[in-house]
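Tokens help. Consider this.
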Amino acid sequence: MTFVSRSLRLKVSLGVCLALVALLAPLNWLQYQLQRKAAMADLELLAATAGAVAERSLEEAMLTNNRPAIQSIVDSVAQAPDVRSVLLLTPQAMVAASPGGLHNGEQLDLNRATCQACHQFPAASRPRGVVVTDTDGQPVFRTMTPIPNRPACHSCHSPRDRLNGVFYMDFSMIGLNARLERGLRIAFLGLVTIIILSTSVLYVLLSRLIITPMERVAQSLNSFSQGERTIRVSVQAEDEVGLLADVFNEMADTIQLQETEASRLYAELKEKDEVRRQLLARLISAREEERRHLAREIHDELGQLLTGLSLNLKLSQQAMPDDPQAARDYLDKANAVVRRTIEQSHRLITRLRPTALDDYGLVPALREELNQRLAPLGIAAHLDTEGDVERLPAEVTTATFRIVQEAITNVIRHASARRVHVHLQRMTDGLTVIIEDDGVGLPGEDPGSSDGRRALGILGMQERAGALGGWLEVTRCQPHGTRVALWLPLDGSKL
């Protein structure tokens, strides 16, 4: 089958062979059926003629009630070739005469399958002949010739009876079927011969006129696909194959020009992409620097003002002379508000730029982030590291912290998780970060199939990683949960 699937000659030849089979086989079968129908018509005519001759022969013997003569006629008909059975039946289905008188006086059961082939129909519409299977399993053609009740018969039969009896004959179909099958075999052999000759001639013609030129085109296409851009096809023909060769040559010229242009454009695009990546990295650094500056100002200015306000309120509480209890209550409330303001400003500072990230490094900052955000929600968090993950470039440290921070936000908002595991590993060429949770996982195979906020968060993390020359993948864990894999290069030339 592999050889056939790779040979166009054999495919076309087999296709034509199957087409001839599909066309000639039904015609051959139709011819067989027509021959069988004609043979059955001849057999029915023969049976009808034999029945009529037997009826005329029996008429005089029945009028004179000459039973020996009736028996002699039945015995003579039974000796004819291909006659398997002869019976003379009364209207009540009793055997009046049979070959050798073996079944005379027997009552036939009209409910038998061989009898129901005719008796299932009303008497007026019963067929005169039918093909049935005999008791020994052989097909026979059964004909029934009715013997009408004529006026001359009324001396013995009631005028009300429509028939005096039925002349019943079975003709063997073994010889007929054998002749038909022999004719069918001869026709089949002729069909096979025609198909073989036609397919062979077509195979040779296809090889010389079409397949060989097509193979040249195919070989040229294969060489062209392997990188031989200078190869061209030469076919000395003006038909469709020659047109195909001309089209291939034109296509090869066009592809050569387009590849040259594409190489130039790719080089330009690569250069522009490198510039864009550098600009994006600078933008992220500038944004982080601005956040650091803003956090310092909030801490230095707003924190000091609020602390001074709290101190003044405490002094006012102590110096209030009138209604000291009420004053003390109001001042307590004001002092609580101030404390909450200080705590809120501290949280704002942490969100803008965690102080632990600058003061202690990446790992302590991540531990503080996990404890402050996940522990109050009852989510167990675990952080482990491999290698020296502290002495990293500032850009890598900031990007890693922000990406983990966004991943934690996604866990809180969407995952319904109970455990989160963060793993950092420093390798020779980069930093690998794995964040896994046991939550409900992504709603689809593609991260973009999730809801809008999560999709934007994932895209933001991917852009931040891509700006540093790294990558980020979000996949589903088995049996449930989400896995975020981050890789960032540590080569300073890529930052």
